[in-house]
Fold this sequence. Notes:
Layout: H1 7-22, H2 33-39, H3 44-49, E1 75-79, H4 85-94, E2 99-104, H5 107-119, E3 125-129, E4 142-148, H6 157-167, E5 168-181, H7 192-197, E6 204-205, H8 206-215, E7 218-226, E8 235-244
Helix pairs in contact: 1-5
Protein name: Arsenite methyltransferase
EC number: 2.1.1.137
Enzyme class: transferase
Amino acid sequence: MSSCGKNDVKEDLIALYTMLAEKPDMDFGWSKGKSNARRLGYSDVWLNSLPDVIWESAAAVGNPFKLGDIGTGKTVLDVGCGAGADACVAALQVGDTGNIIGVDCTPAMIDKARENSWHAGLCNIAFYEADYSRLPVADNTIDVVISNGAINLSENKDQVFRELFRVLKPGGRLQIADMIRETDGCCNTESKTESWADCVQGTLSADKLLAVISNAGFTDATLVELTGYRTSDSTNGALVRALRG
């Protein structure tokens, strides 16, 4: 979970996720860290193979790897990579012949992701600060796109998914964990900025999210399961996959 949201709240979003990068022991009001990843079904092999520091700023809302094995030699894009936990997990799966690209809007998260990949001894990862609607990635070069709790923070989700479609190879896979809105009720927080940053205000219903993905050109857009990760009474984590035809 890391930020790239509306212009009028973007600075506040970056401030929040900078704090998560630099002070991960703080209580942010939502689950994070290694114990949260374990609850979401991350393999003990991954949890034990990677140093604990890699998990401390990880605020996963689901496990995108449950949607399919990545595969040796693949090129993976992690959108909203945060401190790099999922990118490191993907690197373990693709091996020395694969490559991982992580993008995030928060400079402190990119710095921490680079440090974490070094701690893990992984050389096949590159991290870039970037807006998700303008990715620094060439057309048709990615085998699998993963994301975890990040796309709901973007205002222009239509453009984000068009970008993901652009960079994926034909037959490439979209495997994301993100927050969806289960009801039309108002969020409980008084601060719009806070609720956006906490993955509430920017969420879509499942039907709307699947429609946005399909309208970007993807096929077989499917909500596979709810994860039980809550950021409010009206939101829930969801695992969603789709194909680039």
